[in-house]
Amino acid sequence: MNTVESLGYLKGLLDGLDVDKKDAKVYKAIVDVLENLTKDVDDVYEELDSLEEQVDMMDEDLSELLGEDDFCSCDDEEEYETECPECGTPITVDYETLEEGGINCPNCGEYLEFDFDCECCDGEHDEEEE
Q1: pTM of the prediction?
Q2: DSSP state, residue 91
Q3: DSSP assigned state of 123
Q4: What is the maximum span of the chain, computed from C-alpha positions, in angstroms?
Q5: 94: which of 11, 18, 60, 100 lies 20 to 30 Å off by Cα?
């Protein structure tokens, strides 16, 4: 049962009880406060949804302006995918391998050289095969 349903149930219970006038006033005031709180929470959720949409649009606009390749996380755990230009074998390399500058293709042995500089590390973020 969600909050609105619970509030309706509580109102129904209150209406069905045989409560004297003084107590009924207090209970009805409590229910009114709960009803106002429910409306406030609903308003907050609506605002949150609106803000989420705005942030998503800003994120998309920023991605278009900068291009996805311009983002850099400098995450030592991140892996990058490339392809051997000689044999076409897909290869996954980690950040450390990129920093070392290259590897031999595990399929054909061709040496793949990587030029990797990162903007957040005073360079440009490029992954190139030679």
Answers
A1: 0.41
A2: E
A3: S
A4: 90
A5: 60
DSSP category for residue 27:
H
Mark 55-77 as b/e (b = at least 16 C-beta within 10 Å).
Answer: eeeeeeeeeeeeeeeeebeeeee
**What number of CA atoms fall less than 13 Å from residue 46's CA on the CB side?**
6
Residue 84: which H helix or E strand, with range? Answer: none
Please give the structure tokens belonging to residue 123: 């360079």
> Which residues is 114 bridged to in the sheet?
129
CA atoms in the 13 A half-sphere facing the CB of 89: 14
**pLDDT tens digit string along 85-108?**
899 999 888 888 888 888 899 899
Reference 92, options 109, 73, 74, 112; nearest CA is 112
Q: How many degrees, rounded to 5, is the angle at CA 90 between CA 87 and CA 93?
A: 120
Question: Token pair 């991140």 is at which residue?
Answer: 78
Mean pLDDT of 108-118: 81
